[in-house]
Amino acid sequence: MKTRFWKSGDPFIWLTGGALGFSLLMIVALLWIVAVNALGFFWPDRLLLVSLSDGTELLGQVRDHEQVPQTGDEQGVAYRTQFQVGNRDLYGADFRWVDDALILDRAYPEEAVSFERLEWGALFGFLSSVSVDGQVVAEGFSHSWQTFQDLHPKTIDIRHQIERIERQEVGDINYEMERLRLQIRGIQLHESDPQRAAQEIRALEQEVAGWQQRYEEITERLSALYQENARYEIVVQAAGGKQKNLPLAQVVRAFLPNQMSWAEKAGLYVTRFWEFFWEDPRESNTEGGVFPAIFGTVMMVIIMSIVVVPFGVVAALYLREYAKQGPLVRAVRIAVNNLAGVPSIVFGVFGLGFFIYLIGGSIDSFFYEEALPTPTYGTGGILWASLTLALLTVPVVIVATEESLSAIPREWREGSLALGATKWETLRKIVIPGALPGILTGAILAMARGAGEVAPLMITGVVKLAPTLPLDGHWPFFHLERKFMHLGFHIYDVGFQSPNVEAAKPMVFMTTLLLIGIVVALNLTAIMVRNRLRSKLRFGTF
User: What's the number of domains the chain is made of?
Assistant: First the structure.
């Protein structure tokens, strides 16, 4: 009876089912932890004012509460509370632990204001006055708050004008002046007729002078806008008797968290959530948005997929359908399988040496000589990072495609050949369409792995903060030589390289959740296409 029970295979079915269930449970638990810590990042918490036994006060948001370990002869249970006090430029730290036994009084003052700043993180305090051109125009909370609300939209509008001018107009001028400089350098290097070279250089220098004059005009406009924004200043009274003079232009937004209704908090939550997707990062990447990282991640995965899928499929077709099976082909298959287990950083070093130094350096020598010694393609960029990840993931596509090709019934091939089709026609019209679901499975696995890799990118083109996107309005529009930001590296940088780890923790969780969402979205898109192909294959609609 016992022997029959084990031979039936039921224990192994339960074992594999239990392992699957446990794995799914761990994945759900991981996603739950990430989501809980991430989605609460944008909710505006109330500001708590506490009076301590030493006579000082503390204003901040409660972030954690835990039991304090007891040592020695101490009796009883003690607790402590972690406050996010902000005001890093005043206190030197954003967070502070306080023993509950030291807290004498707690209050939620309605006049407490939470300021989000472009620099130095959050500022918590009480608005005491507003100044224009050094003259106080409002004092007291009510008058100052109303004046602040009247003036703040104006400063935001001016700041947006400054950003637009610096990015678009100044960026266009810098681009054109650099282009003209390289043309002049190219003429000096390659033009053999000195008289003709001098004439061409003079014409280009006149263009440079025109752009320089335009730059000076824009600089004057920017100076006037900066001076206009510098006129407005507020005074914030922080807990502990400290005072902060804050330029109004540095304030991203301000709100009264202890007076806000649930609907107002929900509206602010949605606004912050939207900004996270579409704004640029600020404050060492610990605040603001991650749009450049989103763009870089998606663009890199698309370029990688465009490269890896055709090469992987062609290699698998040759190995399975054309190559004569023997020791050499078996050795190639073993090598492909072994490549799948090579550490990713090794591919990064190979990409650095082969793509960047060898190919990129050669491209610079032949086509961008006038820009040397500043490299164009001989340095890290999104193209070389994508090709490196393509090498990293091509074994996955080859193996998946070969398995899919081997699963096509032999009768399909023989029937097609018997009807007079050539081998290529059989592959194109019978074998490849039937194997497409398996090919897409390999592409899905390749995209999932490539989107999450970080180590190879660190030495092939990813950066902490990219000044420009790889896509803009200048020819050739797609600038594949540019460095880029990546969500995976953004997580590493914010989580492990930030000087303010506690403040950066919510951003790490939110970026992690976003990266998971992008990978899932890319995979779901590929899965939907695969399922559609399977249904067509099932009903013979190819």
Answer: 3
